[in-house]
Amino acid sequence: MQKLSRRGFIKLATASAISTPLILNASPNQTPKINFDEIYDVIVVGSGISGHICATYLAKNKLNVLMIEKMDRIGGNSALSQQDFAVMGSDLQKKENIQDSVELFLKDLNKVGQGYNHKEQSLRLAKHSNEAYEFAKSCGIKYSDKLKFLGGHSVPRTIQTIGGGGQAIQTIHQTFLKEGGKFKKETKCDEILKNEQGEVIGIKVRENYRFNRELKNDDRENTSGNAKTYQARLAVVFATGGFSKDVEYRSIANPRLKLAYTPSNLGQTAGALKIMAKAGGNPVQTALSRFSFGIPTEDLIYGIIVDDRSQRFLNEDGDRQVLSNKILSHMDTINTTNYPIVIFDSNGFANSHDPRRMNSFITSSKMHKFQTLEELSKYFDLNLETLKQTIAKYEEGLKNNKDEFGKDLSKSKNSGINKAPFYAMKAAPSLSYTPGGIFIDTNMKVLSLQDNTPIPNLYAIGEATGGVHGASRLTSCSIPDCMTSGLLCAKNIINEKKI
Ligand SMILES: Cc1cc2nc3c(=O)[nH]c(=O)nc-3n(C[C@H](O)[C@H](O)[C@H](O)COP(=O)(O)OP(=O)(O)OC[C@H]3O[C@@H](n4cnc5c(N)ncnc54)[C@H](O)[C@@H]3O)c2cc1C
How far is the CA of 221 from the centre of ligand 1 (A)? Predict the structure, then answer.
């Protein structure tokens, strides 16, 4: 890639929409030319928080940036998320005099990663989280002045986004546009284009693409839209998120994931990962998962979980990964697609570590309240007689202090299922995050599967990448990953291209 001064770039960039012939994967005898429809300095594919942070930093630095989004709405999973955000060394930690360090944050991340995580990436996340938080604030995103102390973190360090992810995305999107960034929705990247030196020079897209939820596999079957080619003079950045909604792909990566529920955006498919793989990238750790339940996992111990035969089958005490794997394996064994039900009585409900939050699940109709077990069994289509027998056996265990599945009943504060009202909801292992993705280096460059060297001018950030978190993911740590990778990617593009 030739080097140009910043002024040179801006001049060239403003002359966008000029057709420039470039060579695509050509041999000396065969030199197919691409007459690009549009020209930009950097193209960011995907409009979640990682893409927005990267694109906005580049736009603030006067680069000609295009961000594209395949869906008809911006924000991907970032717009659905609460965007709880773990930060080391924030103004809030200082205000509350909380002693934290990069080393402590790293220790927490590595503990959850269980040695599967690439530690240089966890270090990047921990070290630059405050820089990313400050940049997000400078883009107008608003945060609460209260810190959260979430499970798995040694100290309070999680910041809450006011208005959640939807508002954060809308705010930074306005900043991006104000800084001169260009945006196209319903524009899907189909291919990464390279020149004969193997350098990435642009992308092939379809404008006016319409995602079709009726199709079994939208990436393969959807032919909507008009093909266009865009040149990227400096870099193409994939900020395309995870693949939690892609049942076909995730079941190939790990059959256990077939039955998992996902609250993700419809567009969270593996199409972009396959495009990067086709360009030579290395998809890693795609069999890993990160589950959650609709309610805090630590509260499940105060209830019982029954399958669709109204029977218990596990010890309700366990972490999110252990319980989810047991549930999915049991559903497979008894050949059902029905998620089990967690049932609390009024004491168990009150034992929850945050009853106010439990009440909010009732308000949002995630959880339901019943005056009798008859009502409950009718609502969830359970067999009342079997359910009563299951409960009687559990109560018997409570009396004898011996649970048939080895639950530590004192830890569950001896919560029984005998005092109305009863509360119940589906205990569905929910896959809201896929830890696997394309392998990158610490400059966010996509590394080649063949020789582990960077594919020139191709970058990936956020949940699209793999290996940052490892075996699972520490709670509230995707957002700092997305933000630090997005910010550092933008800085690296600027530094490397000597703009
Ligand atoms: C309900 C929910 C709550 C969550 N809460 C938290 C939380 O509190 N804290 C936390 O740390 N994490 C949380 N997470 C996880 C976190 O929100 C995501 O990991 C993160 O937002 C991903 O951001 P991203 O920028 O990498 O990708 P996304 O935000 O998913 O954006 C990727 C975008 O790329 C688009 N795209 C994909 N392929 C193409 C293509 N070929 N062409 C054009 N566009 C394409 C997609 O349509 C999508 O809009 C939550 C997730 C969910 C689902």
Answer: 23
Inter-residue contact 476 to 86 (CB < 8 Å): yes
Q: For ligand 1, is residue 479 a contact (CB within 6 Å)?
A: yes
The two structure tokens encoding residue 419: 């005092």
0.85 exceeded by pTM: yes
Distance between Cα 160 and ligand 1 center (Å) = 17
Cβ of residue 267 lying under 6 Å from some atom of ligand 1: yes
If you measure from the C-alpha of residue 166 to the centroid of ligand 1, how many angstroms do you get, rounded to a whole number?
A: 11
Q: Are 149 and 159 in contact (CB under 8 A)?
A: no
**110: Cβ below 6 Å to ligand 1?**
no
Regarding the beta carbon of 437 and ligand 1, being less than 6 Å apart is answered: no
Nearest alpha carbon to residue 181 among 30, 64, 344, 302? 64
Do residues 460 and 444 touch, judged by C-beta distance below 8 A?
A: yes
- Contact criterion met (CB below 8 Å) for 456 and 1: yes
Per-residue pLDDT of the chain (499 residues; tens, 9 = 90+): 334 444 334 434 433 434 444 444 444 444 457 899 999 999 999 999 999 999 999 999 999 999 999 999 999 999 999 899 999 999 999 999 999 999 999 999 999 999 999 999 999 999 999 999 999 999 999 999 999 998 899 999 999 999 999 999 999 999 999 999 999 999 999 999 999 999 999 999 999 999 999 999 999 999 999 999 999 999 999 999 999 999 999 999 999 999 999 999 999 999 999 999 999 999 999 999 999 888 889 899 999 999 999 999 999 998 899 999 999 999 999 999 999 999 999 999 999 888 888 898 999 999 999 999 999 999 999 999 999 999 999 999 999 999 999 999 988 888 899 999 999 999 999 998 999 999 999 999 999 999 999 999 999 999 999 999 999 899 999 999 999 999 999 999 999 876 6
Nearest atom, ligand 1, residue 480 CA = 11
Question: Roughly what angle, to the nearest 10 degrees, separates helices 373-380 and 384-400?
Answer: 120
Cβ(467) to ligand 1 under 6 A? no
Structure tokens at 71: 């869906």
Residue 473 Cα to ligand 1 midpoint, Å, equals: 15
The CB of 272 under 6 Å from ligand 1? The reply is yes
